[in-house]
Design a protein that fits this description.
The chain has 716 residues and is an alpha+beta fold. The protein has ten helices and 37 strands. Among the domains are: 104 residues, Immunoglobulin-like (Sandwich), CATH 2.60.40.1120; 80 residues, no CATH class; 143 residues, ABC-type transport auxiliary lipoprotein component (Rossmann fold), CATH 3.40.50.
Length: 716
C-alpha cells in the first residue's frame, strides 16, 4: 500500500516536471505554430458546434474541427504559412477569413462572428483586420519568405537578415550582434526546431553551424526574453523554418555576382600602390517545389510535397596584410639603435657577432634562420610594397594574399499527409565548405613563398522529422526529432613537411625581429554534435488550452588538437634558468657551436626549462665536452662510394645545481650513433662530411641534441 502510494506520488511528480519542461520548451523546439479562435453570434454569445475548416493556401491541405461548448477551437502543430479559415453552422451565414498568415513563435487568433442567415451566404474578411495576438506576452518579430527575398543583403546568409530587426545591435559586425542588450551567448538558434548555434562559445553566439540559405528558408522568427514565453535553451530564440513545397510546381534559378570592377579601391590600398582586393563572388543555384508526382505510379497532389534547393558559392578573394622583416644589415648581425645626444636623435650600430665572440658565446649565424630570412626577403620582391617605417632594424611590407573558397549547399524537405489525422514532415541540410588558405583565421603564408599554410574544410549538416497526430476533436500531439553534425577540419593540412625550411621547428620571432614565419603548428579538427527530441500534447478543454510534454537536448564536443612540430620562441629571457655555455671540443672538427645550439633549442622545445646562453644568476648549468666523432660507411652506391654513413659521437655531459653547488646528473661517456644519407657520396672523410653535408649534419646534430636532453630529463 505504501509502495503504491509512493509510485502514484512519483508519477504525479514526473507529470508536473514534464509539464514544466513543456512550458519552457514548446516554442524553443517547435517548427510549427497554433491557430485558435472563438465563434460567437452578433450578440456576443458563444456558438458551440460550428464547423471550422482551415485550408493551407499553398498545399490545399485542409484541417477540420468543431467549436466546443465554450465556442472555442484550436489547431495546434500547424505549419507556418497562409491559410483560409471557414466557419459554418446551419442558420448562420458562412464566415470566411482569407490570407490568415501563421507565423512561427506566435499563436494566431481568428475570432468569427456569425450573422443569422443562410449557409450559402458568406461574410468574408481579410485576416489583417482579424488576426490578433492575444495568447502570449512574448515579444517577437518575424521575417517572411517574401521579405527575405527583397532584403538588400551582401551575404545570402538568411541569419544576417535578423540584424535589420528592431532591438538588434551590430556594432561588432553581424556575428557579434546582440539582441535587446542581452549577452551574445544567450541566443539560441534553431532550424526546424534543431539547435544549430554555437553552444560552446561565451561569445560568437550569433552564428549557425549550418548556414541558412535565403532561398531555403520559409521564415525567421525572433522571440525575446519574456518570462513564461518558452525560452528554452536561450533567452532569445531565433527560429528558422525550411521552405516547403506547395500543390503547384514552383521554382527559380538565380546567380548573384560580385566583382572588383564594380567597386572603388580602398584608401589604404591606394597609399601603398596596391590594386583593388580581388573579392569575387559567384553565388548561383536553383530551387524547386511542388507535389510529389510519379506519372503512372503516384499522384501526391494534396497529400505529398517536396522542396529542393541547391546553391554554390565560389569566392576567390584577396586580403591586404601588413608584415615587418629585418633589414639586410640587421639580418647579418649589425643591429641599430637610437640614442638622443644633445636633444638630437642618433642612429648607432653594434656588431652582435663580434660582441658574442668577445663574450665566449656563439658567434656565427644560424644557417637555417639565415636561409629563412633570405626567403622572406625574396618573397617581398615578388609582389606588394616595402616601406621605411623609421625603425633601425625593420622594414614594413604590405601585400595582398589570395585564397579560394567554395561552399556547396543542397537542402531538401518532404511533407506527407499519411491520413486525415497524421502528417509527417522531414528536412535535411548538407553543406560542404572549403577555404584554401583560411583567410578568415589568418592562416595564409606569413610571407609569399613560405610553406606554413592552413586550410579549413568542413561538412555541416542538420536533419529533422516531425509527426503531427490528431488524437481527437480537441487533442493534437506533435513529436519532433533532429540532429546537427558538423565536423570541421581546422588546418588539418598542416604537417611537419611545412617546417623543413625552419629546421623542423615552428619558429616565433620576437617583435624586434619582425613578423614570425609560423602561424600555427597545431591542426585543430573538431566536431560539435547536437540532437533534440521533443513531444508536445495540445488539449483544448472548455475555455482552456493546455499544452504539456517534454524535451531532451544533447551536446557532444570532440576536439583533437595536436602539434606536428615543437614551437620555439626565439629571443632573450631574463629569468636565468638554466644556462648552457658553449660545449668544449677535444676533436679536430668544428662542431661545438652547432651542437650547443641544437641542445639549447631542444631544451626550449621541452618547455620545462628557460634556457639562456650565460651562467650569470642561473639555477643550473649544463656543461658538455665533445670527446670523439667517428664516421663509418653504412652502404655503397654503384661506384663503390659511401652513400650512407654511420656517425658516432661521444660526449661528456654534466648538469649542475648552481645554488646547492652539487652535480645533479652526469654521464662521462654519453654515446650517440645513427645512420644518415649523404648528398655527395665520398670515401668517408669526416671533415668533408661535416663541411659539405649540411642537411645530414643538421639532422645528425638535432638527433644528438635529443639524445642528450632526453637523458637529462629522464633522470628527473
Amino acid at each position: 500500500m505504501n509502495s503504491s502510494a509512493f509510485t502514484m506520488r512519483g508519477a504525479w511528480h514526473l507529470l508536473r516536471v514534464m509539464a514544466l519542461v513543456a512550458l519552457s520548451s514548446t516554442f524553443a523546439y517547435a517548427q510549427s505554430t497554433t491557430l485558435t479562435g472563438v465563434v460567437t453570434d452578433t450578440a456576443g454569445g458563444v456558438v458551440p458546434g460550428a464547423s471550422v475548416s482551415v485550408v493551407n493556401n499553398a498545399t490545399k491541405v485542409a484541417q477540420e474541427s468543431v467549436s466546443n461548448t465554450a465556442g472555442q477551437f484550436s489547431f495546434p502543430g500547424m505549419p507556418v504559412g497562409t491559410y483560409t479559415v471557414t466557419v459554418s453552422l446551419t442558420g448562420f451565414k458562412t464566415f470566411v477569413a482569407t490570407d490568415v498568415r501563421l507565423l512561427g513563435g506566435q499563436v494566431g487568433n481568428v475570432n468569427a462572428s456569425l450573422e443569422v442567415g443562410n449557409l450559402t451566404e458568406k461574410v468574408e474578411v481579410k485576416a489583417g483586420s482579424e488576426l490578433v495576438q492575444t495568447q502570449s506576452s512574448a515579444v517577437s518579430s518575424t521575417l517572411s519568405v517574401e521579405q527575405l527575398s527583397q532584403l538588400p543583403l551582401v551575404s545570402r546568409n538568411a541569419l544576417y537578415a535578423v540584424a535589420l530587426l528592431p532591438g538588434v545591435s551590430t556594432a561588432g559586425g553581424p556575428r557579434g550582434a546582440i539582441i535587446n542588450g542581452l549577452p551574445n551567448n544567450v541566443i539560441n538558434i534553431t532550424i526546424d526546431g534543431v539547435t544549430t548555434g554555437n553552444m560552446l562559445m561565451t561569445s560568437d553566439g550569433f552564428f549557425s553551424m549550418v548556414t541558412p540559405r535565403m532561398d531555403a528558408v520559409e521564415e525567421i522568427s525572433v522571440t525575446g526574453a519574456v518570462p513564461g514565453s518558452g525560452g528554452g535553451a536561450g533567452s532569445v530564440q531565433i527560429a528558422m523554418t525550411t521552405r516547403s513545397g506547395s500543390n503547384s510546381f514552383d521554382g527559380s534559378v538565380y546567380h548573384y555576382w560580385r566583382q572588383p570592377d564594380f567597386n572603388t579601391n580602398y584608401y589604404f590600398n591606394k597609399i601603398n600602390n596596391l590594386d583593388k582586393n580581388q573579392v569575387t563572388a559567384h553565388q548561383y543555384g536553383f530551387r524547386q517545389g511542388g507535389p510529389i508526382v510519379i506519372p503512372g505510379l503516384y499522384d501526391g497532389r494534396g497529400k505529398a510535397f517536396f522542396f529542393f534547393n541547391f546553391e554554390h558559392l565560389y569566392q576567390p578573394s584577396s586580403a591586404t596584410r601588413t608584415r615587418e622583416f629585418l633589414t639586410p644589415a640587421a639580418a647579418g648581425g649589425l643591429f641599430g639603435y637610437n640614442v638622443t645626444v644633445g636633444g638630437v636623435q642618433e642612429l648607432r650600430q653594434i656588431n652582435l657577432l663580434q660582441l658574442a665572440q668577445n663574450n665566449g658565446q656563439i658567434a656565427t649565424l644560424d644557417p637555417i634562420v639565415q636561409s629563412l630570412l633570405a626567403k622572406i626577403r625574396t618573397g617581398t620582391t615578388t609582389t606588394g610594397t616595402v616601406n621605411d617605417i623609421n625603425q633601425p632594424n625593420r622594414l614594413e611590407y604590405v601585400y595582398q594574399t589570395e585564397a579560394k573558397g567554395n561552399q556547396y549547399s543542397p537542402t531538401t524537405r518532404l511533407d506527407f499527409n499519411l491520413s486525415d489525422k497524421h502528417r509527417l514532415s522531414g528536412a535535411y541540410w548538407l553543406q560542404r565548405f572549403t577555404s584554401d588558405p583560411d583567410l578568415l583565421n589568418s592562416r595564409e603564408a606569413r610571407f609569399p613563398g613560405l610553406e606554413n599554410i592552413g586550410q579549413q574544410n568542413s561538412y555541416r549538416t542538420t536533419g529533422n522529422s516531425t509527426l503531427r497526430s490528431t488524437l481527437g476533436s480537441n487533442m493534437v500531439n506533435e513529436l519532433l526529432g533532429g540532429f546537427q553534425w558538423s565536423p570541421n577540419e581546422f588546418f588539418s593540412n598542416v604537417t611537419a613537411d611545412q617546417f623543413e625550411e625552419q629546421g623542423g621547428y615552428g619558429l616565433t620571432f620576437p617583435a624586434s625581429v619582425g613578423t614570425s614565419p609560423t602561424h600555427t603548428v597545431s591542426p585543430a579538427p573538431r566536431n560539435t554534435t547536437t540532437w533534440n527530441v521533443a513531444n508536445t500534447l495540445n488539449w483544448l478543454k472548455g475555455s482552456h488550452s493546455l499544452s504539456m510534454g517534454g524535451s531532451y537536448a544533447g551536446l557532444l564536443n570532440r576536439t583533437t588538437e595536436y602539434t606536428v612540430v615543437p614551437n620555439i620562441t626565439l629571443g632573450f629571457d631574463t629569468t636565468f634558468d638554466p644556462a648552457i655555455p658553449m660545449f668544449t671540443n677535444t676533436t679536430p672538427y668544428t662542431v661545438e657551436q652547432l651542437f650547443t645550439q641544437k641542445v639549447r633549442l631542444e631544451f626550449q622545445s621541452s618547455r620545462r626549462y628557460t634556457v639562456v646562453p650565460s651562467d650569470e644568476g642561473v639555477d643550473g648549468i649544463v656543461r658538455g665536452e665533445i670527446q670523439s666523432i667517428s664516421l663509418a660507411p653504412a652502404s655503397l652506391n654503384a661506384q663503390q662510394l659511401a652513400s650512407r654513413f654511420r656517425v658516432s659521437v661521444s660526449v661528456k655531459v654534466k648538469f649542475e645545481d648552481v645554488k646547492a653547488q652539487k652535480t645533479l646528473w652526469e654521464n662521462p661517456a654519453l654515446g650517440f650513433s645513427d645512420e644518415y644519407e649523404v648528398a655527395n657520396p665520398t670515401g668517408g672523410d669526416v671533415s668533408a662530411f661535416i663541411g659539405n653535408e649540411r642537411i645530414a649534419m643538421d639532422r645528425m646534430s638535432t638527433d644528438f641534441a635529443r639524445t642528450v636532453v632526453s637523458a637529462i630529463l629522464e633522470a628527473f
